[in-house]
Structure to design on (985 residues):
């Protein structure tokens, strides 16, 4: 059968089943996806690079493997890869002018494992430059629009992958989450965004923003697909010294339909009342929904979580100021000539980096400089420890924590023009990142914004203790099955494409 | 040197460690090769690449620390040292800041007259090496005036040990003696080739002067660009003289980095303290903390070989071997091993050392075969020594027998037997030989009788020669004396 748009709108699990059972070929799915991309991209702009040739070649290889009797968990599943992950032969830009023409000569471990599982790399998706931002507006190379309202941002920094999955231009999007960069765009685009425990998925080949926080994870339309992606990517990698040795138990077989016996912590300091009437009502309904599924709600406290943003904006820029030093025009990427080496560095970096990247390099350089190191960097590390301790304390009385994924739905382009208001977008996601915890955002309803016609998706964030991915994905699956919020509204981009 | 001032010197060394692969990637760690052939995404610092520490390099540092009696940190970490430099791929160097693998300890070295001294160590830590730049188009190979620069990253990421001494050295000679001891020890431990000419040992010196008797330190300068032990000695001596001259004339020493100019024999200012980098050290988030268990330290301690300083002490104190000869043996571990085997077979050290460093080393030079590889096994040498000790051959014959052994003529006793080289002390057999020589050299005999007694040696030599060295020189001398005075 030819791969219809209908199949492309199914889950990754269903596409893989169809390919494994040879009801459709990976090549057919890939061709249909590429057509869909051509039709949708003018509205959405999720991709920076479409890898038609590589995708078709990969599809042919998957079809051969399936024909030889292999069953691949992600056979023929169209995959969108955030453009900060290396894939041999593909342009890998990080949404930055400084890498605009850089072709990666090697493949990141996470992407390699996805390809080994049968996924087809459709293209590289837009993101905030070097993953620094919450709206994709910091990309130097393109604009990505929210598939539910083209006047709004898709969130960020993994906005391209979130939009691609929401607009059916891929079934799975790979994102990276440093302070919320998977969970927030997931919430904004009405899809599932999952950040595993720090160290679960290898960072080898992920272009670093903040090494102690960066974690690769999936953006998918179902929790099951997130679990399948996690199962394909997670596990120790000898190429990443921070990847954990802890054995990975597959999460997909542990998905459940109820929350009986689970205690879900509601964070006292994260009162959704602060988010206004509509959001407040949605979150209260979501918590009630968890209770109806059998969970026992308990109040927990994270007293230091309010220092998360301040802590994060010392640690992440400090690391980025060092991580981004290598973009100097000497070996690869953009080079702008200067009078001498120093001049070349200055001219290259001045022309190659955008405003936000420069701001963070400056903040980080300052935080690490002699005389300020103890006051900023060391204190931030102490605060980070306290925040992690708070979570440990909370998990003594609950199994999971539930809270908002973001403080608002997708906003209009330019609405958060001052950096600090943009930083606050990650208020609910940063503490988990600092503590290295696994967290997921799942659609939990819709709000009608006063300044738009389209209803906008809202995400519920669930967070578990370190390495509790199975429990977390299982619970998110139960909530998703019971509520199925995604079914309520079709994305505008889908309607326009049809 | 001005005797009212005392130089105070500390040495900072960078040593490339001998490992199969680089510090943080699987690339081959080997000197040289076509430029940029031993590289990968990790040591090139490509976007997204991550470092994974080389366990062997860490073991090497632990070994060095244990050997020098340093305290090995149970818990250590890697830090990033941030600064921009074209041959440093990531524009930061992975190094260690406040928690080095090894701290304290000391290097024992000895002076030319054989006195053992000690220089305390501040710390020993692990880091990665940089690439190498070549500047083309300038007359002197420097970056100034060059048209373009080429970078070879083969060396980038090679494991590098930094070893910092306390300012315990008091002369340029001591500094070199310290470096020699350090080099010998690292060779003995097998952790590095320690070749200054290949850059696997590089060192900087911190130099200051103070009035003799003072306990505080003067302002120091750091001397760079020294490419041999000889240039270390010259550079330090020159810098000490420069500083003393400044202080003498009422001037002030500036804290700065100075480069050694080999051709003109002077140091010149490179950068002042104000221009010093702020390296913004912080723990490398790509690497997890290092844990070194006491069990590992114990294992290393137990497998440590005898160190050069210990061997020096043993040879000079127990065997009474001269310091210069001891140093020769320590610098040639294979030869030292050979020597030890000869001793184990019962030879006296004083005898053995003379043959090993004398006749055998000369034969080795002539034939290009190492002593330990030659046909003269330790058993053969000890056999020759025993023959001499038992007065069965003369020491002159011993040389001949050894040469024959060397050239594959068989065992010493067999050679002596076959060639009739046994010592002749029988007067009856020697008298005809003595008389023959006296008859052959009437002029010499006349000289002797005229009072030139020193010609006796010549006559002894002639008899020895005629006997192919077998004649007992003492007996020959007695016979000659007898004959000349009686006649």
């Amino acid at each position: 059968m030819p791969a219809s748009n209908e199949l492309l709108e199914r889950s990754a699990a269903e596409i893989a089943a169809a390919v494994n059972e040879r009801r459709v070929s990976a090549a057919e799915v890939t061709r249909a996806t590429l057509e869909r991309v051509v039709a949708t991209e003018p509205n959405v702009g999720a991709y920076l690079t479409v890898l038609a040739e590589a995708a078709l070649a990969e599809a042919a290889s998957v079809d051969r493997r399936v024909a030889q009797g292999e069953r691949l968990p992600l056979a023929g599943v169209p995959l969108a890869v955030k453009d900060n992950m290396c894939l041999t032969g593909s342009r890998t830009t990080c949404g930055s002018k400084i890498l605009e023409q850089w072709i990666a000569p090697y493949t990141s471990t996470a992407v390699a494992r996805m390809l080994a599982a049968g996924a087809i790399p459709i293209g590289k998706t837009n993101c905030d430059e070097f993953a620094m931002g919450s709206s994709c507006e910091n990309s130097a190379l393109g604009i990505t629009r929210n598939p539910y309202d083209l006047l709004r941002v898709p969130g960020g920094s993994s906005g391209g992958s979130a939009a691609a999955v929401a607009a059916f231009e891929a079934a799975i999007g790979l994102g990276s989450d440093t302070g919320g960069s998977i969970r927030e765009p997931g919430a904004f685009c009405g899809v599932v965004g999952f950040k595993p425990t720090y160290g679960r998925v290898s960072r080898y080949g992920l272009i670093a923003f903040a090494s102690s926080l960066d974690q690769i994870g999936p953006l998918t339309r179902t929790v099951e697909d997130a679990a399948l992606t996690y199962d394909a990517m997670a596990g120790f990698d000898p190429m990443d010294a921070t990847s954990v040795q802890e054995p990975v138990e597959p999460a997909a077989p542990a998905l459940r339909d109820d929350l009986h016996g689970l205690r879900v912590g509601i964070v006292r300091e994260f009162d959704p009342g602060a988010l206004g009437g509509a959001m407040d009502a949605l979150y209260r309904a979501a918590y009630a929904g968890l209770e109806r599924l059998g969970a026992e709600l308990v109040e927990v406290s994270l007293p230091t979580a309010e220092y998360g943003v301040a802590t994060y904006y010392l640690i992440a820029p400090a690391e980025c100021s060092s991580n981004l030093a290598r973009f100097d025009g000497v070996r690869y990427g953009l080079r702008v000539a200067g009078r001498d080496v120093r001049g070349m560095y200055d001219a290259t970096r001045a022309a190659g980096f955008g405003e936000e990247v420069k701001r963070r390099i400056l903040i980080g350089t300052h935080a690490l400089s002699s005389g300020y190191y103890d006051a900023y960097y060391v204190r931030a590390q102490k605060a980070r420890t306290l925040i992690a301790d708070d979570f440990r304390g909370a998990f003594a009385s609950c199994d999971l924590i539930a809270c908002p994924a973001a403080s608002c739905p997708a906003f209009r382009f330019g609405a958060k023009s001052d950096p600090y208001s943009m930083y606050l977008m990650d208020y609910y996601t940063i503490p988990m990142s600092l503590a290295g915890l696994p967290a997921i955002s799942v659609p939990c309803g819709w709000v009608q914004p006063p300044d738009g016609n389209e209803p906008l998706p809202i995400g519920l964030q669930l967070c578990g203790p370190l390495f509790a991915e199975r429990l977390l994905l299982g619970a998110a699956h139960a909530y998703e099955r019971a509520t199925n919020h995604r079914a309520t509204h079709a994305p505008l981009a889908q309607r326009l494409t049809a | 040197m001005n005797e009212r001032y005392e130089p105070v010197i500390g040495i900072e060394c960078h040593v490339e460690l001998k490992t199969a692969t680089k510090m943080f990637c699987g690339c081959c760690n080997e000197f040289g090769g076509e430029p940029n052939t031993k590289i990968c995404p990790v040591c090139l610092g490509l976007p997204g690449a991550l470092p994974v520490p080389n366990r062997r390099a860490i073991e090497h540092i632990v070994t060095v620390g244990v050997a020098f009696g340093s305290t090995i940190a149970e818990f250590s970490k890697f830090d990033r040292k941030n600064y921009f430099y074209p041959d440093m791929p990531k524009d930061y160097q992975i190094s260690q800041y406040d928690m080095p693998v090894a701290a304290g300890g000391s290097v024992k070295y000895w002076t030319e007259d054989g006195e053992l001294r000690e220089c305390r160590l501040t710390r020993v830590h692990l880091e990665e090496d940089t690439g190498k730049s070549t500047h083309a188009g300038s007359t002197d190979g420097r970056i100034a005036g060059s048209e373009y620069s080429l970078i070879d990253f083969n060396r980038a990421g090679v494991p590098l040990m930094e070893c910092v001494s306390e300012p315990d050295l008091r002369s340029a000679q001591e500094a070199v003696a310290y470096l020699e001891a350090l080099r010998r020890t690292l060779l003995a431990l097998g952790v590095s080739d320690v070749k200054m000419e290949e850059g696997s040992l590089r060192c900087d010196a911190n130099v200051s002067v103070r009035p003799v008797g003072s306990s505080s330190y003067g302002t120091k300068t750091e001397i760079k660009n020294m490419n041999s032990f000889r240039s270390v000695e010259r550079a330090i001596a020159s810098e000490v003289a420069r500083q003393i001259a400044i202080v003498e004339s009422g001037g002030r020493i500036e804290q700065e980095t100075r480069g050694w100019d080999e051709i003109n024999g002077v140091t010149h200012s490179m950068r002042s303290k104000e221009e010093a980098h702020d390296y913004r050290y912080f723990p490398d988030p790509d690497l997890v903390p290092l844990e070194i268990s006491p069990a590992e330290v114990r294992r290393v301690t137990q497998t440590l070989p005898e160190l050069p300083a210990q061997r020096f002490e043993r040879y000079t104190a127990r065997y009474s071997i001269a310091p210069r000869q001891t140093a020769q043996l320590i610098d040639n571990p294979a030869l030292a091993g050979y020597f030890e085997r000869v001793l184990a077979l019962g030879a006296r050290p004083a005898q053995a050392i003379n043959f090993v460093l004398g006749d055998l080393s000369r034969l080795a030079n002539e034939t290009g075969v190492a002593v330990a590889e030659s046909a003269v096994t330790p058993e053969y040498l000890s056999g020759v020594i025993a023959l001499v000790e038992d007065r069965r051959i003369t020491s002159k014959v011993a040389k001949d027998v050894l040469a024959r052994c060397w050239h594959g003529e068989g065992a010493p006793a067999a050679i002596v037997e076959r060639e009739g080289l046994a010592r002749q002390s029988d007067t009856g057999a020697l008298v005809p030989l003595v008389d023959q020589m006296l008859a052959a050299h009437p002029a010499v005999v006349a000289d002797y009788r005229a009072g030139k007694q020193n010609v006796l040696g010549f006559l002894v030599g002639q008899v020895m020669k005629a006997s192919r060295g077998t004649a007992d020189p003492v007996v020959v001398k007695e016979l000659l004396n007898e004959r000349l005075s009686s006649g």
In short: Chain A is about 40% helix and 15% strand. Chain A has one domain: 1-498.
